[in-house]
Specification:
The complex is a heterodimer. Chain A is mainly alpha-helical. Helices cover about 60% and strands about 0% of the residues of chain A. Chain B is about 75% helix and about 0% strand. Classes of the chains: A mainly alpha, B mainly alpha. The interface between A and B is large, with 48 and 46 residues.
Chain lengths: ~450, ~180
């Protein structure tokens, strides 16, 4: 027979000892176990053993550095998502097949049952057919519109990979920027992009890289240079240039260095030939977008420039949450687009997302989304991206604005799938700009 | 009846997951960098060596895939280690790892002669002792001792009652004591 002094035996209380030593018991239970173990030789011995055991187990692992996994994981996302979509497709197809078989069996059973009791009370075919067709047509709208738009972009690409500004009513100085916008729209489809469109992206990326000069700048000098360059950098990063070759990766690095090199002492960016203090939010937000994307893809070296750039942007946010052009109270072209673009930058940055002003900015942006009467595809893109980043695609204001964008798409004729450039930026960007921006507004989120 | 205590929520993880749910890859990268060391070490403790980073990558890809399912009512680490547990189980199934771990532990923890015993004693450390545990017990020990998860969080991650976590921990400690004693 075992006694309380027999230290080799196991006391029922000992089951509580690991939890006690690991701090898992609440205060009352811990005190109870402590009181017991103080007077129990078996628990005292076991507690001592357990302490030694935990000490041995907590020996640190041999130091082995852990590589930064983020770049590899992010690079794997497109393939991984494609795999999930394939599996999901087949899973849904199988589920649909089973459901259809089940529905068929149920209907058959129902009809047999009806026929047995009341041959006149059969289910009208129209009732059966009505609901599935209605449900299927609703989610198809945006998907079909995007598909048509991307098909239009694909067939209007020139053989060498660029989009011709003169042909589509845009200013030639924006050739690099507009090609980049078209590539961004195509790339936004991610793994769902079709093989021909993937080829179109590859041709476009090659064309953009051919525009890079010795300084790393993508596109010619001039007043559009920083817009062109940041958009092209973003298009290269999104278009898979990092994964195609070491030369492409080096080109991306040079493009990023050109952006960081162009940052002014204040932290913002401006026209490349402007005075040192001539910086503005419009140019700055595009540089920030490129750097934020680069950081997400593993270019940690851009962080100091991002921090300064975001601080500059933060100083342009007014009390109401609106973002000004050069100062917080400067709105030469309105505040809607810049506020949405500023909110988007903050939402996409690690530190900015915690900025308490973001909520005010978004509230203001959401108000502008409720006024879709004036087509402005540039504004629509930023508003859409900001709201989708903040709240996902279910935001009613976002859906309303997207509905207005969808309504303006050309449904037939030679340019079916595109958008007519009728807004204030249309004379600069033409049909390529309008279509790319509209489709980006529909895709974001 | 005890009140259900809401686990503390890490604001940083919560904010990053909110952005991640909107598809923000920058937030995803930040989240990876916050947890990659803990996760890789978790898999190393579970018995992975060279493949620890691969399984960690697979776990993070699952975080991305299931980001819409995360609800900020629990700590992010509970969500992360739930996915880590599944990734680890899939890894074991693919690689028949369990048999190899058992063989290795058998070779090291039950040597046949005195020379081998001495060598085994020198080699026996926490890592080898852990490998001697059955998978279910090892998960509880690694999550508690090395990842700092509370019993309640482990219970959520493994889908078992808290009482089962407690009893598995007790059994694990008893087994580990035997392993160390056998090697001495």
């Amino acid at each position: 027979m075992k006694t309380d002094t027999d230290a080799s035996a196991v006391c029922a209380w000992s089951q509580e000892l690991p939890a006690l030593l690991l701090g898992e018991l609440d205060a009352a239970r811990a005190a109870e176990v402590e009181r017991h173990s103080a007077g129990c030789a078996r628990c005292t011995a076991q507690r001592e053993d357990l302490g030694c055991l935990l000490f041995r187990l907590r020996a640190p692992l041999p130091a082995q550095p852990v590589r930064d996994l983020a770049p590899e994981i992010l690079a794997r996302l497109p393939d991984a998502e494609a795999g999930w979509h394939r599996r999901t497709f087949w899973f849904r197809a199988a589920a649909l097949l089973l459901a259809t078989a089940g529905l068929g069996a149920a209907l058959l059973w129902h009809q047999l049952r009806q026929s047995a009791f009341d041959l006149a009370a059969t289910v009208p075919p129209a009732v059966i057919n009505h609901e599935p067709s209605t449900l299927a047509s609703v989610p198809m709208d945006r998907t079909a519109a995007v598909a048509n738009a991307l098909a239009w972009l694909e067939r209007t690409q020139e053989a060498d990979g660029h989009w011709d500004t003169a042909r589509w009513g845009a200013q030639r100085m924006y050739s690099v920027g507009l090609t980049s916008l078209a590539l961004l729209a195509l790339s936004a489809e991610g793994p769902a992009v079709s093989p021909p469109q993937r080829s179109a992206i590859a041709r476009g990326v090659d064309w953009l890289l051919a525009q890079q000069d010795a300084r790393g700048q993508l596109g010619p000098d001039g007043s559009a240079a920083m817009y062109n360059h940041s958009l092209a950098t973003l298009a290269l990063l999104e278009g898979g240039a990092l994964t195609t070759s070491a030369a492409h990766r080096a080109a991306c690095r040079r493009a990023l260095a050109h952006i960081t090199g162009a940052q002014r002492a204040s932290g913002g960016w401006g026209y490349s030939r402007g005075a040192a203090d001539n910086v503005n939010t419009s140019i700055t937000v595009w540089q920030l977008q490129a750097l934020l994307r680069a950081e997400a893809l593993g270019f940690a070296e851009v962080r100091p420039y991002l921090t300064r750039g975001l601080a500059w942007l933060g100083d342009r946010i007014g009390a109401e949450g609106r973002v000004g052009y050069r100062r917080a109270d400067d709105f030469p072209n309105g505040a809607e687009t810049l506020t949405a673009a500023g909110a988007l930058c903050l939402l996409r940055s690690t530190d900015g997302a915690h900025d308490p002003r973001v909520a005010r900015m978004l509230a203001w942006v959401r108000g502008t989304a409720e006024q879709p009467a004036t087509a402005d595809y540039y504004r629509c893109y930023f508003v859409s991206a900001a709201l989708a980043s903040a709240a996902g695609a279910a935001d009613p204001a976002l859906e309303k604005m997207r509905g207005a964008v969808l309504a303006r798409q050309m449904r037939d004729g030679a340019e079916a799938g595109s958008w007519t450039p009728g807004d204030r930026w249309g004379r600069a960007g033409g049909r390529i700009y309008a279509t790319a921006m509209a489709v980006l507004a529909l895709q974001s989120g | 009846m005890p009140l259900h205590v809401q686990p503390p929520v890490n604001d940083e993880d919560f904010a990053l997951m909110a952005r991640l749910r909107a598809g923000d890859t920058a937030a995803f990268a930040a989240l990876i960098r916050r947890h990659q060391v803990a996760l890789v070490n978790f898999f190393r403790r579970m018995g992975a060596s060279n493949e620890a980073e691969d399984v960690a990558q697979e776990t993070f890809l699952r975080v991305w895939r299931y980001r819409q399912r995360y609800r900020p009512t629990a700590k992010f680490t509970t969500f992360l280690f739930t996915l880590a547990r599944h990734a680890w189980a899939d890894h074991l199934r693919r690689a028949h790892k369990q048999e190899r771990v058992a063989e290795r532990v058998g070779a090291e923890a039950a040597p046949h002669d005195a020379t081998a015993q001495d060598a085994a004693r020198r080699r026996l450390d926490a890592q080898v002792a852990l490998a001697a545990l059955p998978e279910k017990l090892r998960l509880v020990v690694v999550m508690s001792l090395y990842q700092g998860l509370k019993y309640e969080e482990i219970a959520t991650a493994l889908g078992i009652p808290v009482g089962t976590v407690k009893s598995r921990m007790f059994l694990a400690m008893a087994r580990l004591k035997e392993v160390f004693q056998a090697a001495e």
